[in-house]
Amino acid sequence: MNILPLLTYAIVASFTPGPNNIIAMTHARNEGFKKILPFIAGVAAGCLLIMFLSSYFNLILHQYIPRIKPALNILGCVYMIYLAIKIMRSKSVNAKDPKVNRFTFLFGFTLQFINPKVILYGLTAISVFVMPLGDSHVHMIVFSLLLTIIGISANMTWGLCGMLFQSFLLKYERPFNILMGVLLIYSALSILK
C-alpha cells in the first residue's frame, strides 16, 4: 500500500495559500495565536465533516458506477495539473483579510462549506488516492481523519508562523510556488499508473 502520492497531494494542497491559511496567518499576526484557536477548531470540524461527506459520496459512486473510475482518474489528474500550473504562475498574494470582527468556531466551520479548495481537496483525495487503497467504513474514517489532520496542521502552521511565514512567502514566493506545483504534478501523474 503506497500512500506517498496521497500524502504529497494532501501536504501540497493543505500548505499552499488558501482562505483558511491566509485568515489564520493574518489574524494570528494581528491578535496572537490563542485568539485564532476557536477559528481553527471550527475549520477542523467543518473540514472533517466535508472529508466524511466526500468519502461516502465517493463510496456510493464507487459501488454503483465502477466504470467511471478511469475517467475520474483522468479528470482528477487534469484538475491537479491545472492547479499546479495556477500555483506556479500565481502572482503575489495579498494577505490582508477583510475587516471581520470575530474569528469564531462558527465562522471557521461555515467557511468550509463555501471554500472550494477544501471541497475539491476532499473529493479529489478520496476519489483518486484513497478509494484505490480500500473502501471499508473504517478505511474511510481513518483517511478522513488523516486528511483533516494534515489540513489543520497546515492551518496551525500558518497561524503559528504569522508574520515570519508571511515575510518568507513574500521574499521566496516564486520558488515556493514552483516547488508546490512540481509536487502537485508528481501527485497527479502518480494516479495514472
TrEMBL record:
The record's subcellular locations are: Cell membrane
Known InterPro entries for this protein? LeuE-type
**Is Cell division there in the keyword field?**
no
Mind telling me which residue stretches traverse the membrane in this protein? 6-24, 36-56, 68-85, 105-129, 141-164, 176-192
- Topology class, membrane: Multi-pass membrane protein
Q: Name one Pfam family in it.
A: LysE
Q: Which UniProt keywords apply?
A: Cell membrane, Membrane, Transmembrane, Transmembrane helix
| PANTHER family xrefs | ARGININE EXPORTER PROTEIN ARGO, ARGININE EXPORTER PROTEIN ARGO-RELATED
User: Which protein, by its recorded name, is this?
Assistant: LysE family transporter
